[in-house]
Amino acid sequence: MAAVDETGTNATTTGGPAPLDLRNIAQAPKALLHDHLDGGLRPSTVVELAADCGYDGLPAADADSLGRWFRDAADSGSLELYLETFAHTVAVMQTAEGLQRVARECAEDLAADGVVYAEVRYAPEQHLEKGLTLDEVVQHTLEGFRQGESAARAAGKQIRVGCLLTAMRHAARSREIAELAVRYRDQGVVGFDIAGKEAGFPPSRHLDAFEYMRANNAHFTIHAGEAFGLPSIHEAIAFCGTDRLGHGVRIVDDIHPGDDGTPQLGRLAAFVRDKRIPLELCPSSNVQTGAVASIAEHPFDVLARLRFRVTVNTDNRLMSDTSMSREMKALVDAFGYGWSDLERFTINALKSSFLPFDERLALIDDVVKPGYAVLLG
Fold first, then answer.
1. What CATH number is given to the structural domain containing 205?
2. Whole-angstrom Cα distance, residue 138 to residue 127?
3. How far apart are CA 91 and CA 52, in angstroms?
4. Residue 207 maps to a domain
């Protein structure tokens, strides 16, 4: 299948491209915008941290069984049930040592998978049970990311991790978390987010936090259009002014076949596309939570061909038993994508990141394009 770039132009490859297998995809430079810190722990780390902190609520005692349990429990078809699995990971992330270790290993694991830039999010308000303050939670997590970046460099890998601070949409601390994000934005925090159950907890409940971010010229994204559909997306854009849509997969509900069979965009879908509002799509997770029925039926390809700003993401690597390479391979298998497509999705992500423009450009020109040139042959 010919690749289609963001302007709709057919892109062709020359020479001998590398086979599109997992090993080669892992070597490709990748950018990740939607990854939850508490959804990406190594099963072995969960077991060890649980022993260290005295948490005895794990549903399995060994790492292999626990990893299978997370995957099977998250594969529920319900966002609410999917979110219940996080009780176990959050429980072991309540100490300085635990937070640093999880953040360090996150950076190491992403770098080993070829991710050169990642924005990793978590909710500081969920890590206070052992007496840490919000500031201490952020400080220890940022230190862990820096340790992971250093370890990756020592292993010959390049990665930069930016942190997104998340407020829980069912709670009432979003303004406080927004202030925290601004306070640490020169130390590795690149933005703000809200997450949690969409139904009954619209983003407009947190307008004060979003207004604070805008007043301080700070970036934010909003989980919207995963479980609740178009109303959630509309509020996130029209009332809250989000920079990106966390998931946003249900924007496809505003796209319908016209009389001639070609897709016709409704006003909201057209606005999202025309304003180049990035979609943080998470294919495997979207299947697990019931947002879509299967990877083959995921609207990713429809949205990509209609020239939405689509990006590929992991969401929760532990719960989905996934990685960026596996997410890309799943899309390759489902839709016949080539290296040019994967390069485009990666550049989309970097264009949409919360890095300064010159730093985004440097990663695209100096890392991503040369990396894919080798794979394209």
1. 3.20.20.140
2. 10
3. 12
4. yes
Mapped onto helix, strand or coil, the DSSP state of residue 115 is strand
Range of the domain at 74: 20-376
Q: Does residue 9 sit within a domain?
A: no
Number of separate domains in the chain: 1
What are the tens digits of pLDDT across the range 72-117?
988 888 877 888 899 999 999 999 999 999 999 999 999 999 999 9
Residue 12 resides in a domain: no
359 is catalytic: no
pTM, entire model: 0.93
Q: Which of 39, 89, 68, 79 is nearest to 323 (CA)?
A: 39
Of 119, 125, 198, 226, the active-site residue reads 226
Token pair listed for 243: 């920079």
Binding-site residue ranges for Zn(2+): 34, 36, 223, 315
In 3D space, the residue among 209, 197, 279, 199 whose CA is nearest the CA of residue 243 turns out to be 279
> How far apart are the C-alpha atoms of 160 and 50, rounded to whole Å?
28
Binding residues: 34, 36, 38, 196, 223, 315
Look up residue 4 and give its two tokens.
């289609």
Taking only the tens place, the pLDDT of each residue in 277-329 is 999 999 999 999 888 999 999 999 999 999 999 999 999 999 999 999 999 99
* The two structure tokens encoding residue 245: 């849509």
Q: Is 77 within the bounds of a domain? A: yes
